[in-house]
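Q: Focus on the shape:
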Amino acid sequence: MTVLSAALRAEATALGFDAVAIASPDALGDAGARLRDFLAAGMHGDMDWLADRPERRTSPRGLWADVQAVIMLGVNYGPATDPRETLAQRDRGAISVYARGDDYHEVIKPRLKALARWLVATAGGDVKVFVDTAAVMEKPLAASGGLGWQGRHTNLVSRDFGSWLFLGALFTTLPLPPDAPAEDRCGSCRACLDACPTDAFVAPYRLDARRCVSYLTIEHKGPIPPELREKLGNRIYGCDDCLAACPWNKFAQAGRDAKLAAREALNAPSLAELAGLDDAAFREKFRKTAIKRTGRDRVVRNVMIAIGNSGDAGLADAAQARLADASPLVRGAAVWALSRLLPADEFSALAACHRAGETDPQVREEWTLGVSQNDASSPLPARGER
């Protein structure tokens, strides 16, 4: 390790980073080929930005020709308790650990800029910083520099922090010597693959994003595919199942960054409360979080799916209130929720009132499907008898 590399690590630690690795911009290995296969199979779904000029992702030099070294930095956001505990609270929403505190992009980027300024002042050169905001393959670069390895769930796994690291990248024109790559220590373990509620892993190290709960609840813009709705359970934003299942988490400490700590209001929030959020209330509740960027309509869509999965007829009124929502995305999900919670005669009566006046064809189809499915199933007792 050079004197500059040692000083860089000390400065990064002082700025709040928990892990530092230096990677060569030419050390992506087969990551580029795997990305091209992923895109060719259409597994990126709605994420068109992944397919936009993929050559920029397959090599850091495609993004910046002058880069000589990539400094990968990690911040531990490990939870204090197992996030899967929320899944048993069916009247509550499960939010991914990473989204329960301040938006990590906004927390980490100022630190990256501070480290970049220090590096230029100390050793010269030019720099660029990235926090999941450009065509940078952070996880393969982090693995090539020894920060961890890409586990079978495709996420980075660290011997010190398990599966709980936020990543940022600093590109520099300085020819810093790279660190040794990390050894893949997953072995034959299948814990993360078996934990996936939607069977999104078509093979170890290969994810079909179109089935991933995180993709469906965050990136996907349309209705949740009917065959996957029940599998979402009460997951309303992201999914931690494959991360939380990783055995290497037993060596990880809880994250120490106060800004990234979970807000109490986002630990298992009430589905009934979330269902009633209008745009202004949504923006206030999720102020400064990553959830705010997804938008109110997609999140309330997810809440409707969770209500439909709750088995709690007491939440039917919260879903019924959304039948008049301005967003057809929300209305359609509310129809599905009510088809699961109401007895057939009540649902059919609602359909008779709402279907004819519905202007969106997808929502009308939800009414039609709901009626046909209820007619085909055994009658449910009235709500007062449950």
Observations:
- The first helix runs from residue 3 to 14.
